[in-house]
Design brief:
Elements: H1 2-8, E1 21-28, E2 31-38, E3 46-52, H2 68-75, E4 79-83, H3 93-108, H4 110-115, E5 117-127, H5 129-140, E6 147-151, H6 160-163, H7 177-184, H8 199-208, H9 211-216, E7 243-248, H10 256-269, E8 273-278, H11 290-308
Parallel strand pairs: 3-4, 3-5, 5-6, 6-7, 7-8
Antiparallel strand pairs: 1-2, 2-4
Helix pairs in contact: 2-11, 7-8
């Protein structure tokens, strides 16, 4: 499915050197939520990266890792924790944020005890919707992460790009309401199978400009202030964590302007930040040369390391 690929296409490879240990970090009615822990050496306490997958909060799973970024950090002795979270539309945004907060709490509590994670040296990174959730941790967890890395994420969730019909997605065959809801089924899920057609629901939302309504359960046109608490770009302060933003200028899914706006707010608040711009790259850094994507991953790893030493 094309949309699935675009949502998860960070410069990816598997992480063959370290097999993950899978843990249930949270139980909810009818849905156990898992995370995978990668630890090259559990004999000493180590800093760690919390990785959050993309998928528009509708699709994706913890198995969509960040390849080179993970490999570099593992080689430097870091732990990697890649999480699932319950997915929309059956789970709404407040509960998704609760899952994120609980995963962060797990890393600082049970994860620290079981896997030697240094609770005081945690960074957070993610791609697309995972980039959005990464930016949410900058204002939504305590203590704040030491550093953030947002790959083509977004700081608002109710702008016209999400709350109005999207011309790019309306070029594709229109998805009916019935097709969309049949694709997501009737059950709460946190890790749909790779064969899932949940991307049809996302396409339906973008074609009709109703993504905020279906994911949040609120209408940005009639309840605009409700969204403030879930828009990092409106909640940047001087205490916001050091933030690295990575985005391509030809992104047709999440506008490059989203990362640019976040960088401007961080600059205005005096927050440490950097925006890496990939000219001509699309969503998932699609179209950027492999060498350039590798360089970006290396810079992301250095950003994490420099703030978690």
């Amino acid at each position: 499915c094309k949309i699935w690929q675009k949502e998860t296409n960070v410069p990816t490879t598997d992480v063959p050197s370290v097999a993950p240990q899978t843990v249930v970090y949270k139980n909810t009615p009818g849905c156990a939520i898992h995370l995978d822990v990668y630890r090259p050496d559990g004999s000493q306490r180590a800093p760690a990266l919390l990785w959050i997958h993309g998928g528009a909060l509708i699709m994706g799973s913890r198995q969509a890792t960040a390849g080179r970024l993970h490999d570099v950090l593992l080689a430097r002795g870091y732990g990697i924790v890649s999480i699932d979270y319950r997915l929309a539309p059956h789970t709404k945004l407040p509960e998704i944020i609760e899952d994120l907060q609980d995963a962060y709490w797990w890393m600082r509590g049970p994860g620290s005890e079981q896997f030697g994670i240094d609770a005081d040296r945690i960074a957070v990174a993610g791609a697309s919707a995972g980039g959005y959730l990464t930016l949410m941790t900058g204002m939504g967890v305590e203590p704040r992460p030491r550093a953030l890395v947002s790959y083509y994420g977004y700081g608002d969730i109710d702008g016209p790009w999400y709350a109005e019909p999207d011309a790019f997605y309306r070029q594709q065959p229109l998805v009916t309401k019935e097709e969309a809801w049949r694709a997501v089924g009737a059950s709460v899920v946190a890790a749909p199978p790779a064969s899932s057609t949940r991307s049809l629901f996302y396409l339906y939302c973008r074609q009709n400009g109703i993504w905020p309504n279906e994911v949040a359960g609120h209408d940005p046109h009639t309840e605009p202030r409700w969204f403030d608490q879930y828009c990092p770009v409106r909640n940047v302060t001087s205490s916001y964590p050091p933030t690295l933003l990575i985005h391509g200028t030809a992104d047709t899914d999440v506008p490059y302007a989203e990362s640019k706006a976040m960088a401007e707010q961080l600059a205005g608040a005096g927050g440490e930040h950097r925006l890496i711009t990939l000219i001509g790259a699309g969503h998932g850094l699609e179209g950027a040369p492999l060498e350039e994507r590798n360089q970006v991953a290396d810079q992301a790893a250095e950003w994490v390391c420099s703030h978690t030493r």
